[in-house]
Structure formats: structure tokens, C-alpha cells
Amino acid sequence: MRVSLLSVPGSPDRSNEDFAAASHDVVVLLDGAGTPPGIESGCSHGVAWYARQLGAQLLAEAGTAPRRPLADVLAVAIERVAAMHGDACDLTDPNTPSATVTVVRRTGDDLEYLVLADSVLVLDVLDGDPVAVTDDRLARTSRSLRAEMDALPTGSPEHTQARRAYAETLGSYRNTAGGFWVANTDPAAAAHAVTGSVPLDRLRAVALLSDGASRLVDRFRLTDWADALKILADDGPAGLIRRVRAAEDSDPRGERWPRGKASDDATAVYCVL
């Protein structure tokens, strides 16, 4: 695989809570679930630390145990990072750090994949239209919960307060039946990931996108997956994220595209197979 990636923080005064890394046959992308100011997580390390530790464990385990299913790999990684927290962290806190997970692994003649929560995997299929592999349970769960927040100007005090209330309510649906699933402290969440495989000879390339990068397509609707793949092929991840930032800058108060943050951490990984 030939891999290019870029990860850009949503704001210069906040840590980038995305993580992406690659080996010769495995690529991982995680999007840490940041909490609004005023909400405590019970963790002394923070979301960025969690995403980096889990991503590193995933990359290592997926590469050293190539026959182990990716869901099992993720479960092992979650368990290991939970043990790394130590006694200073309260892992029973409902806001303990969590992250979306997207993994691809080349195994023999196939490309295996796993997607958990709202990052996106886009398959550039040789004989057809691109295929977006998504886990839309978070989007379906949050749709009715975010109406008050989305009706307010992004960045206003009222929006900040509504975002905090939204985050607190959403937490009660995390890793529950009928809600949505993310990686945090419970290895059982891994069994709820979307998994599958595709023959390598059917693929030209794949793209792993955090929701801060995929929003050009799935939130802003300014292009489609075929055009997004063309941007990545021609201009790389920087070209895609540059277009995302231009769209965000054109709507800083979220009037055209209501959203929790005016600019989110954006990570794009493009893999030519």
C-alpha cells in the first residue's frame, strides 16, 4: 500500500483528538470523542491520550496477529488501554474518553475492514461506484437530541450551553442496546463494529476519514464520494481538508450547516492498493 495522511486540529488552542497511523499492511484511524468545556471525564489523561494509546495498540495487534478477526483485535486493544489508565482514573464515569475506530488490514488477497461509530471508510471500487462503509447508529441516535443545539448560532453562549446539555444526554445512549457503540473501556463494544472484507483485485484505493474530513460529503453535501476520492488522488489529504476548511470558514455561525463545532479535527488517510 502507498499511504498518505494528514491530520489537522479543529482549533489551534485545542489538542488534536484524532489519531492515524499505518504499517505495511494495516491502517488505523481514530476520532476521539471530545467533551464540551464544563463536563468532567473522570480521566486524568484526556481524550487525545486515549486515541493515541488505543491507535498504537490497534496497529501493533492487527499486524502481529494477522489471523485474529479485527473485532477481536479491537477488543484486546480496548482492554489493554483500560489497564493503562491506572487508579487515578474513574473508568465508571459515563464521560470517560472514547473514540471512533476505523481499521483496514491487507490479509492475503483480501482487504479486511472494521468501522465503529461515525468515521467513514470509502472503497474506490474498480468496477463500480465508490462504496462508503459507515456505522450510522450515532447519527440516528443524535438526530432528535441535537435539535435545540442546531437551532442556535455556533459559538454563541446559548449554543455552548445547549451543546453541553446535548453531550450529557447523548452519553446515556453510549454503548447501550438501541443507542450507539464506541471504543472506551468495555471490550464488548468491539463486537458491535461493522466488519467485512473485499478482494484486493476489486479495489483501486481506500480512504479513511474522520467526521471532520468526511463532512464535505456527508454533512455539507458539497460533493459526493467519487469526487472526494478524485480530490484525494489528485491533491492528497491536504486538498480534501483544504476544501473542508473553506466551507467551514464560509459558515462560521453554522447557519447553513448546523454543527457542534465550527471546525472539527480533520483527518484523511488515502491508501493506493
UniProtKB/TrEMBL annotation:
It holds the Pfam family PP2C_2. Residues 23-223 form the PPM-type phosphatase domain. SUPFAM superfamilies: PP2C-like. Gene3D superfamilies: PPM-type phosphatase domain (3.60.40.10). It comes from the Bacteria. This is Protein phosphatase 2C domain-containing protein. It comes from Actinoallomurus spadix. The lineage of its organism: Bacteria, Bacillati, Actinomycetota, Actinomycetes, Streptosporangiales.
